[in-house]
Amino acid sequence: GGDHTITYPILQAVAEKHGPVGLVHVDAHTDTGDRALGEKIYHGTPFRRCVEEGLLDCSRVVQIGIRGSSYDPDPYKYCRDQGFRVVPAEECWSKSLVPLMAEVRKQMGEKPVYISFDIDGLDPAYAPGTGTPEIAGLTPAQALEIIRGCKGLNVVGCDLVEVAPMYDVSGNTALLAANLLFEMLCVLPGVKTM
């Protein structure tokens, strides 16, 4: 639930306890914009604000599923300049993300990691109930590979955002989101699964 703005104060609290954290960020958008309509805090800016406040260990930030239109000819430059790993959606098409997540686990190491999952990271064929849908996104199976690929990491928190049930009369987006949150709970340290 909620828009991606909620991750900003959550990461302020997490960093207060753990220091700068790694981030596994699944989204159609990098959410590193500077302003919208003159505002510095909105759902397209949380990770820029987090960088500015030193809440993220930028060498341990990976953004997966990024795609869509942009006003900038090099929309991922800011992220790359910070040291983020950006994995555009087209690098994920038609393949398993298990090998990617093996690389991500090495990158994250044993230090604290936060998972932030925007439902628009998934293709709107599976999750139309969101405010900023972008075509050619991830599949639910790939979402599970990403989340399950975080098992064994020092996950200190997670969220799933941007679900807007009123945009999906089928209810599938909310069902998918609830299942993905359950999967996130299952990869928290100390949780035993069968």
Automatic annotation (TrEMBL):
Task: Write down the PANTHER family for this protein, in alphabetical order.
Answer: ARGINASE/AGMATINASE (PTHR11358), GUANIDINO ACID HYDROLASE, MITOCHONDRIAL (PTHR11358:SF26)
Alphabetic keyword roster: Hydrolase, Metal-binding
InterPro entries per the UniProt record, alphabetical: Ureohydrolase, Ureohydrolase_dom_sf, Ureohydrolase_Mn_BS
Q: In the UniProt record, does the keyword Hydrolase occur?
A: yes
Q: Which SUPFAM superfamilies match?
A: Arginase/deacetylase (SSF52768)
Molecular function in Gene Ontology? agmatinase activity; metal ion binding
Species assigned in the record: Cepphus grylle (Black guillemot)
Q: Which Gene3D superfamilies match?
A: Ureohydrolase domain
Q: Which gene encodes it?
A: Agmat
Q: Name one GO biological process term.
A: putrescine biosynthetic process from arginine, via agmatine
Task: Report the family membership.
Answer: Belongs to the arginase family. Agmatinase subfamily.
Name of protein: SPEB protein
Q: Which domain of life is it from?
A: Eukaryota
